[in-house]
Amino acid sequence: MADPFEVRMRFTNLLSHLSASAAASIKTAHYALKHRDMDEDLHSCILENLERGSNSNMNNKANIMYFLEHHADLNMKDGGHAGYVEMIRRDILRIVDAVAQSGANVKVVRRVVSGLGEKGVLKAQVITSIETGLKDKEEKLGKLLGDEAEAEGVQDPMEFTAPDGAAQEGSQKATPRTGAERPSKPNGVSKMDKRAIEQRIEEDRERNKRLRESVWAVPGDDEQELDKMWEEGALLGEDEYVIAEEEAEERLQFVSYHRATLGT
Q: Is residue 105 within 8 Å of 54, Cβ to Cβ?
């Protein structure tokens, strides 16, 4: 039997190194399935990773949220562990609140929750409740960002102070305050560093690419793909026949002109 502490550490490490790659999420889900006898402990690792920190690991929270969809999908199949699915269903509100903290990752949460609903993991009432909370978070975030932009656009009248003795010398030159004297932002919205933003952009691009691939993918052989094209293809109308006849007539005229040119 594997050491429980080692299993927790290994699983926590897998969670912290998740990326936009589906292979990483599937690998982590299989590891959890392999150690299903420690399901409560491993599920608690997921919650701990989501609830620690604030915005410093926002990208990792998004990756864990996407992982949960793979996690649920794997354990709903034959040979899976239904306990994991039940834990996700039980703690989904807690998970959403941790991932969409301060209004961040709202789109990520909305997409994953929608996917879990389509798989039957979440009920419609739960999804509606989550959507209401997400809209509230979006409104609060928009208000905070609006207040921040307004605060940055207005210059502080106390931004500059006159040096000692400037009044007696008739000098109107002001000296800026030091950085330590600047007040902190009133809304508390912290800035993400450039590296984290670039990483998030790359991961979102990778996920969108995989999403398009899944839309284009057709299961089965060529005959099934042909049947799908036949069913989805629209019937030709009278206008299409008229256009085709006109194009055919133009091609014949061009051929006749080309032959006449060669003959001369």
A: no
Predicted TM-score of the model (pTM): 0.63
Residue 183 lies in a domain: no
Q: Identify the CATH number of the domain in which residue 63 sits.
A: 1.25.40.90
Amino acid (one-letter) located at 34:
K
Instruction: For residue range 179-206, list pLDDT tens digits in order.
Output: 444 444 444 444 556 777 777 777 777 7
* Other beta carbons less than 10 A from residue 188's beta carbon: 10
Q: What is the pLDDT of residues 43-68, one digit of tens each?
A: 999 999 998 865 457 888 999 999 99
Has residue 66 been placed in a domain?
A: yes
- For residue 105, is it left (φ>0), alpha (ψ between -120 and 50) or beta? left
Which tokens go with 221? Answer: 């052989």
- Asked if 90 and 78 touch (Cβ cutoff 8 Å), the reply is no
Structural domain for 111, as ranges: 1-153
